[in-house]
Write a structure and sequence with these properties.
- The structure is a single chain.
- 29% of the residues lie in helices and 23% in strands.
- By secondary structure, the protein is an alpha/beta fold.
- It has a four-stranded mixed beta sheet with strand order 22-23-1-24.
Length: 441
């Protein structure tokens, strides 16, 4: 698919997509919960659908009225589970990094031999963690030198262990879910150098919502506590997605004003920090009862570059929220000055090497990006040039280029734009509903 986004003025309001981080964790919790779970506001991105497929492969019965619904309020999904009981020898997580890292320990709760598979960029992402850790909890593991496919055979037996959290917090999420499912208490997981702590807050929030009790000490020690029996029927509502909404908020800041609805301001999602970056850039932002109203800065004296958005360069540490790099680069491109974003080391093992991908694709639009150690320097304020860019099969790169196109001097053509389906299937449709001219070919 090719998406051609033309320079456009945005107006109106849009509801944020459902959070795939919340949705996938809810699917995992529904699988390990013995009973019925009703998931409200379910997502329908590729990663969400992959999670639903995985839990069915692991024994859950999923009832959907309209599984591919793109309505504002899709019908709830019912999950009935009697625990992890695989119905076949394979489990495929699609291209979901969270899915593969979270569901592998959960699948290991079974004593069946299971092949863990994925596709796309996932086959190139390191999974050495499982080779090192799962044997410590009684699981047999055979990988392709730390890469997919992986064969595992449990059952996983919780033990006091220490794990490295520097590569991704998603491995810890999987272990926490698996440990919770066993019901074993007073077991401790120690963690060294944990990254993306807010994502662990989200994991703990989901576990707590279902009734499991886990406490942590400075994110260095996680201990499972005694809890009341879980309810037979549990209802969980998936949050609005701050990751996807970050692109809408940036679009509003550079081409609005618009209102973004459906976000929880008290969310534990890491990407809520986009609000801090927008404030630093002097975006005109107001939190109203029904959403966040956001538009360009009212102080046009900040700009000497021909833009009228009044936005200025900013500094931001994205170490714990690396998925914000793409929308932040789109924002920084139209800010007057040089923006400094820290945390580049977290970008190597995404759907693409995002540091290099952002540098390459934004250069085609006339934006200079320098990578210096763990920092990214974006030289903003020059006019964004009409160009043809390549998503590199990365959903967030496609969306970042689409947002930047709103203030370019001509249309931006994005090839392989279907990459957005991984997380935000309706992205281009939502831009159109806000007034953007987007041609899909």
């Amino acid at each position: 698919m090719v998406a051609i986004v033309h320079p456009s003025k945005l107006t109106g309001s849009q509801i944020a997509p459902a959070s795939k981080s919340s949705m996938q964790r809810a699917c995992a919790a529904a699988l390990i919960h013995i009973g019925k779970t009703i998931i409200h506001n379910p997502g329908h991105s590729n990663d969400d659908l992959a999670a639903l497929d995985v839990i069915q492969k692991l024994g859950a019965i999923v009832i959907t009225q309209n599984p591919a619904s793109k309505k504002i309020h899709p019908s709830p999904i019912e999950v009935n589970s009697n625990g992890v009981k695989p119905i076949g020898p394979t489990m495929n997580c699609g291209e979901s990094g969270l899915g593969i890292r979270m569901f592998t320990p959960i699948a290991a709760l079974s004593n069946e031999l299971i092949s863990i598979e994925g596709k796309g960029s996932l086959v190139k992402r390191p999974m050495h963690f499982f080779d090192e850790i799962l044997p410590l909890v009684g699981v047999k593991v055979q990988s392709q030198k730390g890469f997919l496919p992986i064969q595992i055979q449990g059952p996983l037996v919780p033990a006091n262990i220490t794990i490295d959290g520097s590569l991704s917090s998603q491995f810890l999420t999987g272990m926490l879910m698996a440990y919770a499912a066993t019901g074993k208490q007073e077991i401790e997981i120690k963690v060294i150098d944990l990254k993306s702590k807010p994502y662990i807050d989200l994991t703990l929030s989901v576990l707590n919502a279902f009734g499991w009790k886990v406490e942590h000490t400075n994110y260095e020690s996680f201990r499972f506590l005694v809890h009341a029996p879980l309810k037979t029927v549990i209802e969980y509502t998936v949050e609005g997605d701050w990751s996807g909404a970050a692109f809408l908020l940036v679009a509003g800041a550079i081409a609005g004003p618009i209102k973004v609805k459906g976000l929880q301001l008290n969310s534990t999602q890491a990407d809520k920090k986009i609000m801090e970056a927008l404030t630093s850039a002097k975006a005109n932002m107001k939190q109203e009862e029904d959403g966040i109203l956001i538009g360009p800065s009212s102080d046009n004296s900040n700009n000497s570059n021909g833009y009228s958005n009044g936005l200025i360069a900013f500094e931001f540490d994205a170490t714990d929220c690396p998925d914000l790099f793409p929308p932040l680069v789109a924002l920084a491109s139209v800010c007057n000055g040089v923006t400094n974003i820290k945390g580049v080391s977290r970008l190597a093992h995404k759907e693409s090497d995002r540091g290099l991908t952002l540098q390459t694709e934004f250069a085609k639009m006339g934006i200079q990006i320098h990578l210096v150690g763990d920092e990214m320097l974006i030289h903003g304020g020059t006019i964004i040039q009409s160009a043809t860019v390549f998503s590199q099969h990365d959903h967030r790169i496609a969306m970042a280029c689409g947002v930047a196109a709103l203030v370019a001097n001509g249309p931006i053509e994005i090839t392989e734009a279907e990459a957005i389906n991984k997380s935000y299937t309706d992205f281009f449709t939502h831009l159109q509903e806000l007034g953007a001219k987007v041609d899909i070919q």
